[in-house]
Design a protein that fits this description.
single chain, about 475 residues, 4 domains, 5-stranded mixed β-sheet, 16 helices
Length: about 475
């Protein structure tokens, strides 16, 4: 039995040197005991123990940078078996250098999971540490309490030194503490929550600011809890406000929409586009588009280039809703400027409608795609993504207040009606939306681009034009 004594729970260099020595000798993973500190080791029935030493004289082993980065993160995990698991994977890589690329391998998946959890824990430390001010004889000092799940404290010291170089601060955790005096970093023993101060005068200002910037359009309680578990809330002053802000968010949304619906009907001198209690006219759309730029109600914002909001007059009589931006729309920041947009423009021209007179938007404001090499292939939004974006559609309709809505495709129809829609069954006739606005459903122009070679493309296009013409003519009849 061999023993590897490491100086600390996060001693990556110690593990690396010991693993290199054992691998050079061909020691099996089952013959090694990995020990942190100088505590006694049970060697089972008194088997002789050899202490790994003299590592500097061992010839280096060739492994990839990817493995070293993976190991450096995984070593910080609180899993007791991490050192043995990493050594087992090291031996496998020495025999099979490409083994790390096999993501179906149980050992590779397990170690990648350890590293991923460590990186997530570090991210939460960066995001959720909150300093509270304490006055002492040398001036203000800032103290923070944090409860990491893994051994990440020292690995993240550089982040806080770089970010708060001019502050004197301490970070206290159950696993150890860090102290920065403006010049040098020192380590300290573990602490308890009682060692950290309570609130300070700055927190009331911060809470007021947080309440002011809180946006109900961005409220996603499940995602919030996933990214910011409740265990961190007690250390963050603004989270005391979260329950009441979440409780009021949906109420605020419904009130805004109801105010718009109950406003006087538009007509001459009626203040077309005004929303009771809000800025009306084109300014309202500009403000709404600005809010949408920061929308994170669903994960689609992460890979997308930008939010693609609607465009057109604030008092347009016709609103046309598509599915989502495509590749070119995502890059340009405008709806319907790609291949499907060209088909749409041709149809509008045949009906005799100036595109600039209609308000044109999409049910989903970010481009959902699957990468295929350098190409980005369209992927249909799911129900959750459609529902997450319905708030924006409701607000666009509340501001524009169109007399007619045209839904192009099943996604747009679902967003507007709140239910699954089969385009083939519903197209060519009006469907009343909850507020009574007539909605005509037709195909999305991208459907015409995907027709099989044996399809009658001209006939399908003519039918698409006929759908739009019928919708527009119904508007004239209603007038």
């Amino acid at each position: 039995m061999r023993v590897a004594r490491l100086e600390s729970e996060d001693d990556f260099e110690g593990w690396r040197l010991a693993a290199r020595a054992f691998a050079s000798e061909g020691v099996a993973p089952s013959d090694i005991v990995w020990q942190v500190g100088d505590g006694a080791v049970d060697l089972f029935a008194g088997e002789a123990a050899g202490v790994a030493g003299g590592h500097a004289r061992i010839a280096p082993l060739r492994v990839t940078r990817e493995f070293l980065d993976l190991a450096r993160d995984a070593v910080l995990h609180s899993e007791p078996e991490r050192f043995s698991l990493l050594y087992t994977l090291l031996l496998r890589l020495l025999a099979q250098p490409q083994a790390l690329q096999d993501r179906a391998d149980a050992l590779v998946r397990r170690i990648e999971g350890l590293a991923r959890n460590v990186r997530r824990d570090s991210h939460k430390m960066h995001a959720f540490v909150r300093f509270r001010e304490l006055a002492d004889q040398d001036g203000p000092r800032f103290i923070a309490w944090f409860e990491p799940e893994h051994h990440i404290l020292r690995a993240n010291a550089g982040f806080f030194v770089d970010r708060f170089t001019n502050m004197r601060w301490s970070i206290l955790t159950p696993r150890g503490s860090l102290h920065w005096d403006g010049m040098a970093l020192a380590e300290g023993p573990p602490a308890t929550r009682a060692d950290a101060p309570g609130d300070d005068p700055v927190e009331s200002v911060w809470k007021a600011y947080y309440s002011a910037i809180f946006n109900p359009a961005r409220v996603m309680p499940q995602a919030m809890l996933k990214e910011m578990p409740r265990k961190y809330w007690k250390n963050m002053p603004e989270t005391a406000l979260v329950p009441q802000l979440i409780a009021g968010a949906r109420k605020r949304e419904l009130e805004m929409i109801e105010q718009a619906r109950s406003a006087p009907e538009r007509g001459k001198g009626s203040g077309r586009g005004q929303i009771r209690g809000q800025v009306g006219g084109p300014e309202a759309l500009v403000l709404l588009a600005g809010e949408a730029e920061g929308c994170q109600r669903c994960p689609l914002w992460k890979p997308a280039t930008q939010t693609v909001f609607g465009e057109g007059p604030h008092d347009a009589e016709i609103m046309i809703v598509g599915e989502q931006p495509g590749d070119q729309e995502d890059l340009a920041g405008r709806p319907f400027v790609g291949p499907a947009g060209a088909v749409f423009d041709r149809a509008m021209a045949q009906v005799g409608i100036d595109r600039t007179r209609a308000y044109i938007t999409n049910a989903v404001k970010h481009f959902k795609f699957e990468p295929r090499g350098k190409r980005r292939i369209h992927a249909r939004p799911n129900t959750g993504e459609i529902e997450a974006c319905r708030w924006w559609i409701d607000q666009e309709r509340a501001i524009v207040r169109p007399r007619l809505v045209i839904a192009m495709g099943a996604t747009a129809a679902r967003s507007l009606t709140g239910r699954p829609v089969t385009v083939g069954q519903e197209r060519g006739r009006p469907v009343a939306l909850p507020d009574g606005t007539p909605c005509w459903i037709t195909i999305h122009p991208s459907y015409l681009l995907r027709l099989p070679p044996d399809a009658d493309a001209e006939a399908e296009f003519a039918r698409y034009v006929a759908d739009i013409r019928s919708a527009v003519e119904s508007l004239a009849e209603a007038a």
